[in-house]
Amino acid sequence: MLLDCAVIGGGPAGLNAALVLGRSRRKTILFDDNKPRNAVTQESHGFITRDGIDPQEFKRIGQEELSRYPDVSIEKQRVHRIIKDHTYFSVETEDGRVFKTKKVIIATGFKEILPDIPQIKEFYGKSLFGCPFCDGWELRDRPLAVIAVDQKAVHMAKLVSNWTDDLIVFTNGNQVASPEEKALLTRKGIKINEKKMISLIGEEGRLRKIQLEDQTEILRAGGFIASEWKQAATFESDLGYEINDQGGIKTDSMQRTKTPGVFACGDTRIAGPSQLIMAASEGSMAAISVNAELVEEKFSGQPEHQVEKGR
Ligand SMILES: Cc1cc2nc3c(=O)[nH]c(=O)nc-3n(C[C@H](O)[C@H](O)[C@H](O)COP(=O)(O)OP(=O)(O)OC[C@H]3O[C@@H](n4cnc5c(N)ncnc54)[C@H](O)[C@@H]3O)c2cc1C
């Protein structure tokens, strides 16, 4: 069967793309290997009607809603290769099957690279988070840490200061701020600690204190980490889309990449805040964009590859 669209990645971006495609009667398969980056957390916030929902429950509801649409199916498989032939794309899954499709939406998300600090992964998603808009409310008015080993430290500290007056920036031995920036933060009551961090101490992911190289221990109830990001997708492809300077897939406002027939949405673009509702919204836009191209191709009378080349 020739698909109208293959959606790669079944987080909020891919789920919403598949929903809008299904409602548009487009033959669609959503491929997902269920390894989202928010699997480390129990609650997602800030999505109206879903504030505080377990991310896996969010996904379950999304998949249930898709099951109402006969043109959409879900393959719980990792896509390991996408090849563009003359007109169509071949999407190959890990179990060796190949699916032909007219369009591809990439919604594979990103992964964070946490700073190299002992035990940090035990606390990530439980009391240390990446985004104050997602988890700041739950940590409000508590003694917090910003853990940042590069220039993102000052921006993150300013942001987090909205949720607490007791904030320390830990740089793990790095110089991350100019003297002027340090003076500014100090004037606002934010301390910077530039000692190496030896250990994070707490129980079941709940941070209690941070131990430093000189053996001092500083009480902290949680905080925020400024991470590096990289693409989550590990599939091979010859799609040749452009990458932005943060390593995300570059698109226009219609979620189109430079490669005709290939769209990208959600975290995989690594552009702007990383939020469920924004990913879902971009998924919707990608689907509308795919649909618009398919309609145009139907009525233009041109073979699809010529339409695509003429964009
Ligand atoms: C600790 C933490 C807490 C967060 N809290 C919140 C919050 O409270 N509120 C909020 O709005 N946002 C929160 N976020 C951010 C939110 O999780 C992301 O913005 C959102 O999940 C992005 O959606 P997405 O669909 O783009 O990517 P993802 O949700 O990451 O989904 C991508 C999917 O693609 C799949 N995939 C990847 N490669 C392949 C492949 N080759 N083949 C098949 N499938 C593939 C992955 O397994 C995954 O299921 C949090 C993130 C983290 C890490």
From TrEMBL:
What are the names of the required cofactors? FAD
The record ties this protein, via Gene3D superfamilies, to: FAD/NAD(P)-binding domain
For this UniProt record, the keywords arranged alphabetically read as follows: Flavoprotein, Oxidoreductase
- Keyword Magnesium listed: no
Q: Where is the FAD/NAD(P)-binding domain?
A: 4-283
- Give one Pfam hit by family name: Pyr_redox_2
**InterPro entries (alphabetical):** FAD/NAD-bd_sf, FAD/NAD-binding_dom, Ferredoxin-NADP_redctase_2
Oligomer and partners: Homodimer.
PANTHER family, per this entry?
Answer: THIOREDOXIN REDUCTASE 1-RELATED-RELATED (PTHR48105)
Name by which UniProt lists this protein: NAD(P)/FAD-dependent oxidoreductase
Origin species, per record, is Jeotgalibacillus terrae
